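Hello, quick one for you while I still have it in my head. A protein chain has come my way and I'm curious about its shape. I'm sending you its amino acid sequence along with the backbone structure tokens. I'd be grateful if you could look everything over and explain what you see. Here's the protein in full, and shout if anything looks odd to you:
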Amino acid sequence: MPESRFVYVTYIRTTPEKLWEALIDPEFTRRFWVETWQESEWKAGAPWRMLTPDGRVHSTGEIIECEPGRRLVLSWFCHLFPELQPEGHSRVTYELQQVGDSVKMTFIQENDTPDSKTINMASQGWPLILASLKSLLETGSPLEATRHFPKGM
């Protein structure tokens, strides 16, 4: 069992296919994830990276599991915050499950560092990003706070 873990569960009025596409499509993620995007082949063993609007590498890792429309697991190493780097990679999991006219999305970020700075920081940022994803899928508009990359980062 990991030492540090953040879990977030939400229900989004969409389909697993649309939610999956929202999680991996670069043009879609830019709309709700502060103008960042991800690049990968989206298959187990493939490298993965997230880029900032000015082209810097935000985070990198590897796809651990990839079941389109159901489950995505990847290792995550954040390059933007040097104070997090000694903790190494964390593990991010998205689980999607159809429930009526919605998709139950369970998000987990975890690592083996007790009282992890990475997980603490993640627990502050993920709720806003995931709420913006929900808003975009359900209303067509992301939350205002996630539309632009923070100045000075």
